[in-house]
Amino acid sequence: MRSIWNGAISFGLVSIPIKLVNATESRSISFRQIHTEDGGRIRYRKVCELDDREVTQSEIGKGYEDADGTIIPITEEDLSNLPLPTAKTIEIVAFVPADRIDPLQMDAAYYIAAGGAPAAKPYILLREALKRSQKVAVAKYALRGRERLGMLRVVEDAIALHGLLWPDEVRAPEGLAPDANVTVNDKELDLADALMDTLGEIDLDDLHDEYREALEEVVAAKAAGEAPPEAPEPAKGGKVLDLMAALEKSVRDAKEARGEEGADEEPAEVRQMPARESARSTPKQAGGKKSTSTSKKTAAKKTTAARKSTAKSAQGAKKTTSAKSTTKSTAKKTGAKKTAAKKTPAKKAAARKRTA
Fold first, then answer.
1. Are 187 and 2 in contact (CB under 8 A)?
2. Number of neighbouring beta carbons within 10 Å of residue 127
3. Angle 217-220-224 from CA coordinates, rounded to 5°
4. Mean pLDDT along residues 112-134
């Protein structure tokens, strides 16, 4: 890693020669501007207004434009000899708890490397002092043409410098919070807490830039002369009207994703915003709880009535069937009696003939 700045850390009377190295890098995919008709590169040329000619980088310097438009030339020598103690020094001004630093002030990050063997011992002294105090150092330094505010903290076995915005560079969030008179009840807060606990923590190393990966797929496909991959269908869904139902469903979904118990419970009903036309034609049925409960009750009554009528029909059919079977059995018995009655006189006549 190449250093971008050489100087020293001023730690009271201790001076630590150091080198500054970028701690972050951009993985974003950059594009070139091209002429859409023939694919030619579009370039910006640096042209002097007075000479009307293109100039090289070695001919370009810095200048400050005054209020009346006058340009005051500023050389690199002028910048290197600024009347500042922080021109080539990171001057530590205080040690504070880390939570005193507002995250909104955080800017670019750098690693601080010891500048040679003589810097090893004071470097390690500062590192161990920061570790034991569990504090961070607030410092001032000059970089890229301006004095900056910074924070020094320990990262593994190295010291890192985080650039900080000056307090007056952070805007106040005035007029951004909703001014509606909204009350959040305890049950909603309990569900929000349950959702936070269910989602839990995550290892930031597992997160990655999916946008960059998708863009790389498109570039690779076009380079190979293939059609770029199609975008997936966006999830359809309207605005959730019932906040409680949305929270309950979110908790269940999070539990299902983590394979926890209690995820197979009956899902909550999440009602969505209807279309504008239906909302105008039937405003009372836009998702109120009463209409839903009334429809459920009506459906329940119809189901009960249908069950009762079915039961009555079944009972009537059973009675009819039993009555028919009773009639048939009675008719059979009556026929048997009549047959027996006809056979009896014939037997008597036969007996008389034998006697005679």
1. no
2. 19
3. 140
4. 93
Total length of the chain: 356
CA distance 139 to 109: 14
Supply 101's token pair.
């630093």
Burial category of 139 from C-beta neighbours within 10 Å (exposed 0-12, middle 13-18, buried 19 and up): buried
Instruction: Work out the average pLDDT over 27-52.
Output: 91
Give mean pLDDT, residues 226-235.
79
Instruction: Give the pLDDT band (50/70/90) at residue 345.
Output: very low
Give counts: helices (H), strands (E), the chain. 7, 11
Whether residue 337 is predicted with pLDDT greater than 60 in this model: the reply is no
Q: How far apart, in whole angstroms, are the C-alpha atoms of residue 161 and residue 144?
A: 15
Return phi, psi of residue 148, to 5°.
Answer: -130, 165
- Whose structure tokens read 């959702």? 195
Residue that is written with structure tokens 């048997």 in the block: 336
Structure tokens at 108: 């670019």
Ramachandran class of 175: left when φ > 0, alpha when ψ lies in -120 to 50, beta otherwise: left
